[in-house]
Q: What sequence folds into this?
């Protein structure tokens, strides 16, 4: 049993005041947020909804004015907030990353493609709240690797393509040498016939046998090559398709590289900008008074 | 003039008539026969005289309608009759050639040269700049549909079908591609090929303007509204992958339009667009070429851009622009 009468009046009053204060605090938080939204003060909204991240990034102080409990109040509103904040953010990104093409997939959710060329790659998703690109790691890695290979004057798939071309040449050679093989086979068959008819002394039979076996082996080697050459046409066709795929990827990544270089100069600079995107964007919001005009 | 006409004139004697008179012979008196014979001769002479009138018109008239009528009549004219044959004659297909020259001359655009071959006894067309490679004649279509095919003599490529009767002109994209983009590609100047294309377009345009012909220009159609129908519209996207790669090698980017269709921007605001699904998925891919002046056709683009030409030729089984199957297959 709980004794409800254990609190003194004084204590009860204090508890009520505490509660009232706590609720008032939440109201104040929500009121501030509502005003920020009314004023289209995106920077303040960012600060309010994730103060921890904000202070870490902007004030460079850890846990400066964390208000996580209040922030939890809008947890179930993230998609709507994200949708609202995306308007200004996308306008900013269009200038900073002109080669990213965003596509809305759901309320407040955006994925982006790299470029506007044929078969462009889906490059990742945008985290509007965190002002952060969640890159598709496979695609991102390809781009990074392409920059790395630049030093060696190679494209992403240069080696693979060279290998496949080499294979294709060999296959073609196999096809082209069919006539030569046919001649050789004929020669060996004649030799075999001759060997079969040869009469030798008993102590020479093993030597003869050996010679015969050698000829048979040669013949089967040639037949094996014949079989391979039968397959060669199909393999060459497969090969061509693979080379096309790889060349396409090289072309795609090549365009991506050019885009990055045109805007940022180097891949490192591009990465650094992505790293500081949140800070840069907050600074931009301050500089442009919250891009108020674009958020109509 | 055809050799077969170079035989001596046959002389018909009344008593060796090798044709049945129209009415039954036994009932005719001798004088009746003579009269009939004489009437036949008169008709034949009239027929010959009418022919010369039409030929006069074909050669000299300045009136488009008269010209057309003369060509149409002459293209099926039977000059010889059982009673009268003319040893020196032009063949019916020659009148098509003459007509083309005269039509273009009426518009001051006669660029093709009408030559006569002593060796083969026929007329032919020579086009300045490509005459080293070939020459052109009309081949009569002998089936009921009539008309004639404008054909390059040495290769046999039939470039278009023309019918006065049906007011129809159909270009043959396959022959045009083979002759102008493959056979002539390495031996003829591009300017000459372009000039020849303009000449072909002139023929089509004047037939349309002057006589209301129904024309299928196929890959020569410069209108932005032209939708080029392709041989296998449901080709795999690897065909476009190839274009993407070859365009990049040719210094161009295959982009996506706002609607997501692949487009290729070329010089002078020329845009090549591949379109899928014109509201109906079964239509597959089609091709369009835009330019501000409505002057550029798919053919022009192929002629000018080597990477497009090689892509088109490599994937002809999918990309070949379709011609009218009624006349070409």
A:
């Amino acid at each position: 049993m709980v004794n409800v009468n254990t609190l003194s009046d004084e204590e009860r009053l204090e508890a009520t005041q505490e509660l009232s204060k706590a609720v008032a605090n939440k109201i104040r938080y929500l009121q501030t947020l509502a005003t920020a939204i009314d004023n289209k003060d995106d920077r303040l909204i960012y600060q309010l909804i994730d103060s921890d991240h904000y202070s870490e990034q902007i004030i460079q102080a850890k846990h400066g004015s964390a208000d996580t409990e209040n922030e939890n109040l809008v947890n179930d509103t993230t998609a709507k907030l994200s949708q609202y904040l995306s308007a200004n953010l996308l306008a900013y990104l269009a200038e900073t990353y002109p080669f990213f093409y965003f596509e809305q997939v759901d309320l407040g959710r955006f994925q982006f493609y790299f470029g506007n060329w044929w078969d462009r790659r889906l490059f990742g998703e945008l985290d509007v709240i965190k002002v952060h690109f969640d890159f598709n790691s496979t695609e991102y890695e390809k781009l990074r690797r392409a920059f790395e290979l630049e030093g060696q004057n190679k494209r992403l798939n240069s080696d693979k393509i060279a290998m496949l071309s080499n294979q294709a040449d060999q296959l073609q050679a196999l096809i082209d040498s069919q006539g030569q093989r046919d001649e050789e086979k004929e020669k060996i068959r004649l030799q075999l016939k001759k060997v079969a008819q040869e009469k030798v002394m008993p102590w020479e039979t093993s030597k003869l046998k050996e010679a015969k076996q050698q000829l048979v082996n040669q013949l089967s080697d040639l037949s094996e090559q014949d079989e391979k050459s039968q397959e060669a046409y199909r393999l060459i066709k497969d090969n061509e398709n693979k080379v096309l795929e790889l060349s396409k990827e090289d072309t795609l990544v090549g365009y991506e590289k050019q885009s990055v270089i045109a805007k940022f100069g180097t891949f490192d600079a591009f990465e650094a900008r992505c790293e500081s995107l949140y800070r840069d964007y907050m600074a931009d919001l301050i500089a442009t008074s919250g891009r108020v005009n674009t958020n109509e | 003039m055809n050799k077969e006409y170079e035989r001596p004139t046959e002389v018909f004697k009344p008593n060796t008539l090798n044709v049945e008179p129209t009415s039954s012979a036994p009932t005719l008196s001798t004088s009746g026969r003579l009269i009939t014979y004489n009437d036949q001769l008169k008709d034949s002479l009239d027929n010959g005289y009418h022919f010369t009138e039409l030929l006069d018109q074909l050669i000299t008239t300045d009136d488009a309608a008269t010209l057309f009528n003369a060509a149409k009549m002459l293209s099926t004219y039977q000059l010889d009759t059982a009673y009268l044959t003319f040893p020196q004659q032009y063949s019916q297909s020659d009148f098509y050639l003459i007509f083309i020259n005269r039509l273009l001359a009426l518009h001051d655009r006669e660029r093709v040269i009408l030559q006569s071959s002593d060796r083969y006894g026929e007329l032919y067309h020579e086009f300045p700049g490509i005459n080293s490679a070939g020459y052109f004649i009309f081949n009569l279509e002998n089936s009921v549909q009539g008309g004639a095919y404008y054909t390059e003599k040495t290769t046999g490529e039939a470039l278009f079908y023309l019918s006065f009767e049906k007011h129809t002109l159909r270009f043959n994209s396959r022959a045009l591609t083979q002759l102008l983009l493959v056979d002539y590609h390495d031996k003829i100047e591009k300017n000459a090929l372009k000039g020849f294309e303009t000449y072909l377009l002139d023929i089509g345009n004047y037939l349309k303007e002057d006589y209301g012909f129904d024309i299928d220009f196929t890959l020569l159609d410069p209108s932005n509204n032209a939708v080029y129908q392709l041989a296998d519209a449901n080709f795999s996207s690897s065909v476009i992958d190839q274009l993407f790669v070859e365009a990049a090698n040719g210094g161009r980017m295959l982009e996506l339009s706002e609607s997501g269709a692949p487009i290729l921007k070329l010089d002078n605001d020329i845009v090549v667009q591949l379109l899928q699904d014109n509201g109906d998925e079964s239509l597959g891919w089609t091709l369009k070429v835009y330019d501000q002046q409505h002057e550029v056709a798919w053919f022009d683009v192929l002629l000018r851009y080597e990477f497009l030409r090689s892509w088109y030729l490599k994937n002809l089984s999918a990309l070949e622009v379709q011609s009218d199957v009624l006349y070409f297959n």
In short: Residues 89 and 190 of chain B are 38 Å apart (CA to CA).
